[in-house]
Queue: 2 jobs
Job 1
Amino acid sequence: MNEPGTKIQRWTPVSSSFTSGFGLLIVALAFVPVVMGASIVQDLTTLLILVLMAVMWNALAGYGGLVSVGQQAYIGLGAYATVWFALQGVNPYWGMVLATVFCALVSVPLSFIVLRFRGAQFAIGTWVVAEAIGIYVSFDNQLGAGTGTSLSQLDSYASTTREHITYWLTLGMTAFFVLLVFALLRSRLGASLQAIRDDEEAAASVGVSVLGGKRILFILASAGCGAAGAMTVANILFIEPTSIFSVNYSAFMIFMVLVGGLGTFEGPIIGAIILYFIQKQFGNDGTWYLIGLGSSAIVFALLFPRGLWGMLEERTGLRFMPVGYRVKRSASPHEAGP
Amino acid sequence: MLAAAGVRKQFGALAALGGVDLDVGPGDAIGIVGPNGAGKTTLLNVLAGTMAPSGGTVSFRGADVTRSSAARRARLGIARAHQVPRPFGAMTVFENCLVGATAGGGLRRRAAYARCLEVLELCGLIELADRRADSLGLLGRKRLELARALATDPVVLLLDEIGAGLTDAEAAELVAMLKALRGEQGLAVVWIEHIVHVLVQVVTRLVCMDAGRVISDGEPAAVMRDARVVDAYLGTAAA
């Protein structure tokens, strides 16, 4: 039926060289502590945590259509679970890995509650869950209650060693979750997840199990944000409930993903880099900084709904990290357009 | 094969379906006609699983599927094309079909790709395979709606007014496509359509509904002559 020579293309020369470049970048980043100073290592740790958060929020909203305002629940849980494991005598770095797993486990029963909601209800529902967990933690005296706690177990490391290990672990976690999302989107499930994003009911009508797909993304994003929380406590050493469970984290994630490009693989990474520089430049300007962030997010949502990367992709047809499919019909005189 | 038995659907005080029986055999081509509000789309929703009936049962190949979700029924082989096309806008035409082939058809990689190329060819969309679905015009979207449903490798295809809004020439193309499909794949089709002269070119059996009931069921010409049908459907149309 179909002509000989029709092929399905997933990699282009540009995308395969870029993807290997991406791999090389991760390897190169691993050597940063060896050659660069402490301040750069700390800055990069902060940036990598932002990348992880953005990629996780995009996995939820950009692919599952799940607009969460409650991802700070897992950031806080990841941070506090790290402290808790350390109190039980677990090595704090192993505690961070365990905290990530813990967040994934906690999200399973929670998914049965919040995934019943849709749209705005889901957004509010996740926020309520985050607030509830935050309040619960603030009553726990062992965890420092409302005044907060520090990860003092890290004091046994020399400060340079500590910063290096934290950096490597953050790099490893971020790379792991970014590549996991990439693998998931390229897998057989990937097309179904994107279909859920575009039209849930239509997706169900062609056999996609919508709830199952959403649950996978929800658990993935919970684990990823848990890791980001664990890395945050390693990076800043002191946490208290109101700031680590702050809805600001969700606001930052929304900003990064909207500016970079919702539902694109590359966009959130770009958004994270932009937010990082804005934070560095204007982070001390208090209220004006937040007003600036909010208004630029609105401008992007109104004028460039596909974000920076979405625009670039549309104009150039470039795809650096290919999660889609191209039909290559070499036998045909008509070349299908991009 | 796909059978509705005593299906009722109540919306508050309104009985959209008041006990409908419909039996679709292998390879059947059934057209459903009836005035607006007769319950045609509701019946299709109940058959496809997007709506649970208030009473009665739906069975498919001998198994009761009344409580099965739409997704499960799509995997079993009941496909549905919506009245207003619902493409996955940000995905390409090919990727739209791929969702059907993998999720609904349970196919993997090469088998799924081959299935998609086949249905795209059949639906005249192969040239547009790499286009974003939201960049298609109405005819393109209708073709895609059909292609995506076919990609699930269905046994029964439920069509809801897919001819609406098309010119005569476009409708003729659609008819040719459906005929080819039925010939090649031995697919059963249940088709709701207001444009009766288009419908009778494909179907071998006509069901007329009015006020939530089947009032006539049989060979198309006979159904069209049925006095109850003339009263309920053509009578109103002529007025």
Job 2
Amino acid sequence: MLICYSSPLRIKRNIFEDIDWVMVVIYLVLVLFGWISIYAATYDELHPSIFDLAKNHGKQALWIGLALVIGLIMLFFDTRFFETFAYPIYGFALLLLMGVLVFGTEVKGAQSWFVLGPVSFQPSEIAKFGTALALAKYLSMNGARFDNLSIKLKSLAIIFLPGVFILLQPDVGSLLVFTSLLIVLYRQGLSGWIFGLGFVAIILFIMALFLKQYEWTLFGTLIQGKVAFILGLSSLAALTYYYLRKRKGSLFIIAAGYIASLGYFLSVDYLFDNILQPHHQNRINELLGIVSDPLGAGYNVHQSKIAIGSGGFSGKGFLQGTQTKFHFVPEQSTDFIFCTIGEEWGFLGSLVLIGLFLTLMTRIVWLAEKQRSVFTRVYGYCVASILFIHFTINIAMTIGLAPVIGIPLPFFSYGGSSLWSFTLLLFTFIKLDSERKYVLR
Amino acid sequence: MINLENRKISVIALFAVISLIFIARLFFIQVLDDSYTSSADNQALRYVTQYPARGIIYDRHGEILVQNQAAFDLMIVPRQVKGIDTIAFCELLNISKEEFVQRVDKAKSYSTYRSSIFQKQLTGSEYARVAENLYRFNGFYGQKRTLRIYPDSVAAHVLGYIGEVNSKDIERDSVYKSGDFIGISGLEKQYENVLRGERGREVLMVDVHNTVQGKYLGGELDIPAKAGVNLISTLDLGLQKYGEQLMRFKKGSIAAIEPSTGEVLSLISSPNYDPNLLVGVKRAANYQMLAQNDSLDPLFNRALMAKYPPGSIFKIIQALIGLQDGVILESTGITCNKALVGCHNHPSARNLREAIQMSCNPYFHQVFKRLINKGYSSNYFEDSALGLEEWHEKVSKFGLGQRLAIDLPSLKRGSIPDVELYDRIYGARRWAYSTIYSVSIGQGEVEVVPLQMANLAATVANRGHFIDPHLVKEIDAEHDSIIHYEVHNTDIDSKYYEPIIDAMQSVVDKPGGTARRARIDSIKVCGKTGTAENPHGEDHSVFIAFAPRNNPKIAIAVYVENAGFGGTWAAPIASLMIEKYINGSISDTIKEQRILGANLLFEPIEN
């Protein structure tokens, strides 16, 4: 009988008591569903065994076994361990991120991997865990005064400090993951406008790229798309001011908004051409339909959409996906694993997968809100946000709604490093949640 | 202060909205939009046509006359041809670089992603050499076809040949697709619908490197090719082959029929050609050679297409009609009056038998005169016209002047003159017996093809009827009904045949008979020689016969062009054929050697 003395009020009889089995079951279903999807993606008639260690699916079996061990170990930890060691873990992760810039191995243009013999891992995975813990720790101590600007800035610093190192690798995908933690700050009281701003920024960005290509003739004058936009924006600002002219300070806000929008709009070209790398530019142009090159930059997404689209309502059946089996989609067992579900299990299978993720993320948020401990709540939000951004970006890129950004589908994509890190994230929350009743508010 | 706890609703709503967007998008591309499915099929599936094996044609004893051999078309998918070693590839196929470029361009102009033929009909061994190197040449693969092969190289004219369909064929019958084969002549054409079979299809999966990865859905969508149906022909391979040997270096033809069934035992036209020449890639070039560069016209099927005057053979018909109409009796004797029509030196015929045996021209001049001038009208011209009409009707019953219903696509009808013909030539009532008398001995306006003469021999052998000659005796239960032949009766009572047959036996057996060279000790052969006058050169040597006299097994007609008197060449050839067919061996090898060694072609053969 496993006994754990973690609660000051009550002694738990065993570690499985008060565990949220819903999350555990969804986790297991996702991991197993992922495993057979990898099997389908890397299936080889000559090596039909799902445990064949020469193939990705065989290795994944091993990684899953280790992940389950990691998950189990998490349940043995004293919850106070996470709170106590939050900062040291965060610091250790930062050291690793710095180290990888020096000692790491470059994979696909980003120096983001440590390779130690047969084992390789991305320190950014540990950094997600460390950042979640550090943010939870910091906000559990200072969260009550979140309207204080310095607390806000410090929180942002905790989130984006790893981001700086990750940008140096450079690994845009992982950087985006950290951005998702803004959701956590939103729950703590950060204004929702920040998301509105982000939304406006994306719209302006897309419009700037689009309008570059167009020009119209109006009253005999040739008007370029950009000029048309500036005229439109100016009239909008003028109109807004006209309606709100009685309000105090409206001129200042409208003028600031106008200038900021205009400046941003005009700088998009520069940002796009000079900050983004050519393959990012291609992927964005491809996504927006500005260029179409299904055999070049658009190959992945084109093939991915064909694989998913050809699945139909109920799919082609397990191991019957022609696009899956014959390697038309590159990276299918890792970043493009969703193609396998789309093709072989069809719309129904995709629906089930999306349903599982939505249930898991909602469940985490729901349980986080029930916590008496701020630490656990914030940590829960962190887990939900990280899962959410992975889920969103990964699936959106496979169905052509987002540019190709190489981040895995949690629990699904092939690879030990990402599976272990998600297991670590989730089971830490499961452990923390299981102590909910024993924590004093 | 705002209640921050309620922000969980916004966060969960965000999760839900994103999920809904995904579901909507997936519904669109997976359920509503079919184009992804067809894209997937286009790139991962390869539809390979399975060409059916064409039906095999057997002889009457089950020996193979024509069968199939494997061949391969080398296919190209231009889009997939990337980074290959062009020089090595050209060497492999033995083509020049320019040729390669030209062919690739041609394929591209058809389609860059669909396959088209790069090189046609490589033989099995040629392809084997190419196939083991194909892995180095992306974008090429072999497509299995079948070609005809004729193991004994016989009966080219009867079997005919096949070739690729042309645009007219495709328009006429949607079954055909470009690249299919179709029968162009002979039995291949006549029985095309039976022989061709049905095209099948195989759906294969290919991977991103265009390497075949097996059958799609375990072959569930495959349609196996349905092989063509085999034919059992009436030909006797041994006899056909022997006849072709006998006819070497001779121009002419042999037709042999089994009288009791109308089955054609052999049909030979000489000079002939090796049917294997008209197979595969070299077909067009060889055809050109045979059709244009050979003055002997080997493609011409003389047995069905060459029109000759029947010569003295026609006397059989004159005699039969004479007996039936009562203008002569068996015992009628007529003086050999060479003033009427030329004749060779022989004693006057004391009866019909002698007249046939000696082939007396003035005798039949008189017989035909009696048939034409029956006194139906006091007007000499009108009387001739009425007589000819009656006569014409009776002659036609022998299948002359009309197409015999043989199951081959092209054959000539020949011609038996009628009132209309002479009216056209001379004007109505401007002609009379004296104008047309040469018809009495099978000259003049009478024209027949060799098959009709063999059929005449069969009619006599049957004592008054013939069965439409035919070349296919059996197909299968489903198709046997298309084999169709009828029995035709002549208007001559069968009792009148016996004296004629007596006479025909005398022609062969009796001293003074014109076809002593046709004698076979063990078989009673009945025959009649003919010497068809030929305005262009030496007369044609003609002989018809049947044997044995009782219960005949074979009726035969032999034509040897420009070979002179019928008894000299045609008669011995016919007898060799008869003996070979009935006894299976030849007793008189001197006769055989004489025929085999004879070169009756005026031009020397160049080899």
